[in-house]
Write a structure and sequence with these properties.
The complex is a heterodimer of chains A (about 220) and B (about 525). Helix content of chain A is about 45%, strand content about 20%. By secondary structure, chain A is of the alpha/beta class. Chain B has helices at about 10-20, 35-40, 45, 60-70, 80-85, 90-95, 120-130, 140-155, 165-170, 200-220, 245-250, 270-280, 295-300, 325-330, 355-370, 405-415, 425-440, 470-475, 495-505, 520-534; strands at about 5, 20-25, 50-55, 75-80, 105-110, 135, 160-165, 170-175, 225-230, 235-240, 260-265, 265, 285, 310, 375-380, 420-425, 445-450, 485, 510-515. Chain B has 3 domains: about 5-185 and about 195-220, Thiamin diphosphate (ThDP)-binding fold, Pyr/PP domains (Rossmann fold, 3-Layer(aba) Sandwich); about 225-330, Rossmann fold; about 355-520, Thiamin diphosphate (ThDP)-binding fold, Pyr/PP domains (Rossmann fold). The chains are: A alpha/beta (about 220), B alpha/beta (about 525). Chains A and B meet through β2, α3 and α4 of A and β1, β8, α11 and α14 of B.
């Protein structure tokens, strides 16, 4: 096979040297994308990585579309903005918003999104048309995070369900994410911490299932 | 020391706390708000007795900071770029008085107008005032420059401007802190005439300021923040200013930058360094976030030297924020375009929150004014500016803080009767009071809505200077008591509110209507905090 032309050892070294994740977080103002950013950020710092995270403050927060550029690397990071076409993943808490930043996503990047629409405009498109766009992408995981969060009796932690679903692709230890959530929500008491961790786990479980399903399908072929 | 994750704004605030700052004065304005907010909520700042004050506007903030500098202590004032317009008078004159205790002015510019009405570049203001400028390229530099800036300010007795842009202000990265410094003791200026700008004194001080410029230039040549990087390939020579450096380097992550590079983060511009680059390279590329300040200087009026490329020849877009891709294109490098946005994606503009009191105020005004037409409603800067958008489309102006009342007065003088102003409580105290006084003095037939949500909402709920005394202020400057009407903007009061508004529109004189109901966001925040503490 072609990829074997590169000796195993060299590939390993390369993998060690280059840890870089460029992530676009997307949603609507007030949906909690900054909590996702903060959780990944804390976990990244715990892992000794460099981090830059550009946020949106001010007017757009009032129910408008918001995004955050989150960059992790084991090398110094220069730009606060991710270059177009270079993001490794889009993590979105709203399905239409996940598509708004497609120009940022690299060809083989992952799109992970909640499918529960947030409708505060009169001309919101049909959910089917949005899902069919998401399905046309090569690498995606989409789930109704709100439904899962409600099932876990913590409806406000849908954002952590989405983070859990993204976690297999973050190259950050899952335990570090749990630790970050403890730090982040510790002030609000154990109940809130556990609710968020359960949501994180539920999202992860969903993603793991999708991944093994996809594997089965490829081996079937 | 361990790194802490800080926004660019927070890095400046922490820098102030650690560099012996005694006070910070500001009016909130995106993207500068988080500087003062950070100091206000910092335990360290409290323990050190650092004064952190929200002020009525940027001018009062600048003057208070100058007063603290007069007292020999280190002071900071921060504002958004258009706030510097408001504070321009004390800013320009503070260069003539000079500083006593270290004095730093932070101006946060907003290229691409994420939350602003223009994208002016504050470096022009610095140059205009003959004040040295520091322009950090990252969060660490932002932190370090506060130490450097205070020292510089005290060394030369000159205010120092730190210029940042939205992207740095609102982006987080690791910052290593320095050992903290003691605050200065009170020490009035040795020359008690220093701050007295009588013409005879001002003339002398202005000469001193002009004489200092050569030292400022020398400092720029030797600054740790201005760096010359040699390069083998001299077909191109690159100048970056501030965070433009990052967008350049982003394109040279995997390969070494082959061209000579001058990274500028301190002004006045380092002329010798620029000359070296100009002499040894064929084409000069100038990459600046904001206006082409350095590029314009380099081209001169005749622009008859070497080929220069940047924002002025279309190499980079003339307006808007830079990004790694636009810089790649300038240098003839390949930049990915990514996929297109699918057509199903619809714009989602910001809107008034559900339950916002402004919604009810605007809807009541809409109905009351229908017999005259809504073509006579002037407004201002705040959340209510969103009532320009559908479904309301109720306001016809948003220019600068306070302009609603004064423009309504001008329109009335032109013959538009009645004429209506819509302004928020915080914007009213910022710059509306003087305009209302004008209208009272001339008995103008205007109806002024002061939307009182008891906070500065757009920037995140800072206290509003007039909370609890709006009526008294209006009465005090001469608005007749019977034409100051407080209404409660709720759906169930709609009919009654419309009736009151109609009456005041009919009144031939100044009326003030104050729809009063707390901002839904701060109200629910308070509710959450209350239920938490229970």
């Amino acid at each position: 096979m072609h990829s074997n032309a590169e000796p195993e050892i060299q590939r390993k070294i390369k993998k060690q040297i280059i840890m870089k994740k460029d992530i676009i977080l997307a949603g609507v103002g007030g949906q909690g994308i900054l909590s996702i950013a903060a959780a990944i950020g804390l976990a990244a710092v715990e892992s000794g990585l460099y981090l830059k995270q550009a946020e949106v403050h001010g007017m757009s927060q009032r129910g408008g579309d918001v995004q955050s550029h989150l960059r992790l690397s084991d090398k110094e990071i220069f730009s606060d903005l991710i270059p177009r076409g270079r993001a490794d993943m889009i993590i979105s808490v709203e399905p239409m918003e996940s598509l708004r930043y497609l120009p940022m996503l690299s060809e083989d990047g992952w799109l992970i999104t909640n499918t529960k629409p947030f409708i505060n405009i009169s001309n919101y498109p049909s959910l089917e048309s949005i899902i069919s766009e998401i399905e046309s992408l090569p690498q995606k995981i989409y789930l109704d995070a709100d439904e899962i969060a409600v099932r876990l009796k913590s409806p406000k932690s849908a954002n952590m369900v989405v983070l859990g679903a993204a976690s297999p692709y973050l190259d950050i230890d899952f335990e570090k994410l749990e630790y970050a959530i403890k730090l982040l929500f510790g002030r609000k008491g154990e109940e809130v911490v556990n609710a968020n961790i359960n949501s994180l786990k539920a999202g992860r479980e969903y993603a793991d299932k999708q991944i093994s399903k996809a594997k089965e399908q490829t081996t079937d072929v | 020391m361990q790194k802490v994750l800080l926004l660019g704004d927070e890095a400046i605030a922490q820098g102030g706390i650690d560099a012996g700052m005694s006070g910070i004065f500001a009016y909130p304005g995106t993207p500068s708000t988080e500087i003062t907010e950070y100091v206000i909520s910092s335990r360290e700042a409290k323990e050190r007795g650092i004064k952190a004050c929200w002020t009525a506007n940027e001018k009062t903030a600048m003057e208070a900071a100058l007063g603290m500098s007069y007292a020999g202590k280190r002071a900071m004032t921060c504002m958004k770029h258009v706030g510097l317009n408001v504070a321009a008078d004390p800013f320009i004159n503070s260069a003539i008085t000079g500083a006593n205790g270290g004095f730093i002015i932070v101006a946060a510019d907003d290229p691409s107008m994420h939350s602003s009405q223009n994208e002016q570049d504050s470096r022009f203001f610095g140059k205009f005032a003959f004040i040295p400028i520091l322009e950090p390229s990252n969060q660490q530099e932002a932190y370090d420059m506060v130490f450097y800036g205070f020292d510089f300010s005290e060394k030369y007795g000159i205010p120092v401007l730190i210029r940042i842009t939205t992207r740095l202000a609102h982006s987080r990265a690791g910052v290593t802190r320095n050992e903290s410094k003691q605050q200065n003791n009170i020490k009035q200026p040795a020359n008690l005439r220093q701050f007295v700008l009588l013409p005879s004194i001002a003339r002398k001080q202005y000469k001193d300021l002009l004489n200092k410029q050569k030292y400022f230039e020398e400092e720029s040549e030797n600054s740790p923040f201005n760096k010359y990087y040699e390069g083998e390939d001299k077909t191109k020579g690159i100048i970056t200013t501030g965070i433009a450096y990052n967008y350049l380097m982003e394109n040279f992550q995997d390969t070494k930058l082959p061209y000579p590079l001058l990274k500028i983060s301190q002004y006045p511009v380092p002329v010798k360094m620029i000359k070296k680059l100009y002499d040894e390279c064929d084409t000069i590329y100038v990459i600046e976030e904001g206006f082409p300040v350095v590029e314009e200087l380099l081209r001169g009026i005749l622009d008859n030297g070497k080929k220069i490329s940047g924002r002025m020849d279309g190499g980079l877009p003339r307006d808007g924020e830079l990004n790694p891709n636009s810089v790649a294109r300038l240098l003839g490098m390949k930049a990915k375009d990514g996929r297109e946005i699918p057509s199903v994606v619809t714009p989602r503009p910001p809107s008034l929150c559900i339950g916002c009191p402004h919604t009810d105020s605007v809807l009541a005004l809409k109905e009351a004014i229908s017999e005259y037409g809504k073509d006579r409603v002037f407004s201002d800067i705040g959340c209510y500016t969103l009532s320009a958008l559908p479904p309301y489309e109720m306001i016809n102006s948003c220019v600068d803080m306070g302009a609603s009342i004064t423009m309504a007065k001008g329109a009335y003088e032109a013959g538009i009767v009645p004429s209506v102003a819509v302004i928020g409580d915080s914007t009213f105290t910022h710059s509306g009071i003087a305009g209302l006084l004008d209208a009272v003095k001339d008995k103008s037939n205007i109806t002024v809505f002061i939307l009182d949500n008891e906070t500065t909402a757009m920037t995140g709920g800072q206290p509003s200077a007039a909370s609890g005394r709006l009526e008294d202020i209006c009465k005090g400057i001469g608005v007749e008591s019977e034409h100051i009407k407080i209404i409660n903007p709720l759906k169930r009061n709609h009919e009654e509110n419309v009736k009151i508004i109609k009456e005041e529109l009919n009144y031939d004189g100044v009326s003030v209507i104050i729809p009063r109901r707390e901002c839904i966001v701060t109200q629910s925040q308070k509710f959450r905090e209350k239920s938490k503490s229970k």
